[in-house]
Amino acid sequence: MSVIKAIREYLYTCPYLSQENINIDYLGSEAKEYSVDKISCEPIIKQYVDGSSIRQYQFALTSIEKYGSDFNINQKNNEFYEMFEKWIQTQNTLNNFPDIQEEVYAIEIIENSSQITRETNTAKYQVKLRILYRRN
User: Fold this and answer.
1) Please, are residues 60 and 124 in contact by the beta-carbon 8 Å criterion?
2) Which residues contact 74 (CB under 8 A, 6 or more apart)?
3) Which end of the chain, N or C, is more open, meaning fewer C-beta atoms within 10 Å of its C-beta?
4) Is 12 left (phi over 0), alpha (psi -120 to 50) or beta?
């Protein structure tokens, strides 16, 4: 299984996403959709003389949500991402990681959620994460 597919499967274990459709590298124009997207980065953080390395895989969870002048809708969007970020932190503490066929030791939020674009009735939100793992 590919890393991005393993991440998608892992995200389905989140109680806030279990009933949602999560795409890979695709986000439509209608609310409510989610996408998990690979982020380009330097994969090797540290290389050891024995050939092993500490690596990272960066990705983003992006969504398109209803948006407008209604305070409750916008608050709900922000609350979802706050709960999701807390869930990620809890999974990290529990050592519950995506099964990427590597020795994963952390999943981290590298950039808190934020609204990245907005239209009249919809807005895109995104949180950036990374998986840290050791490759022998």
Assistant:
1) no
2) 67, 68
3) C
4) alpha
Please, what is the end-to-end C-alpha distance for the chain in angstroms? Answer: 19
Q: Count Cα neighbours of 82 within 13 Å in the Cβ-side half-sphere.
A: 6
Can you tell me which residue has the tokens 């050592």? 95
Assess if CATH 1.10.3720.10 describes domain 3-135. Answer: no
Cis peptide before 128, with omega less than 30 degrees from 0?
A: no
Domain ranges of the chain: 3-135
Along the 136 residues of the chain, how does pLDDT read in single tens digits? Answer: 799 999 999 999 999 998 889 999 999 988 899 999 999 999 999 999 999 999 999 999 999 999 988 889 889 989 999 999 999 999 999 999 999 999 999 999 999 888 888 888 999 999 999 999 999 9
Inter-residue contact 79 to 71 (CB < 8 Å)? no
Report how far residue 123's alpha carbon sits from residue 132's, in angstroms, rounded to the nearest whole number: 30
CB 84 within 8 A of CB 127: yes
108 phi and psi angles, rounded to 5 deg: -130, 150
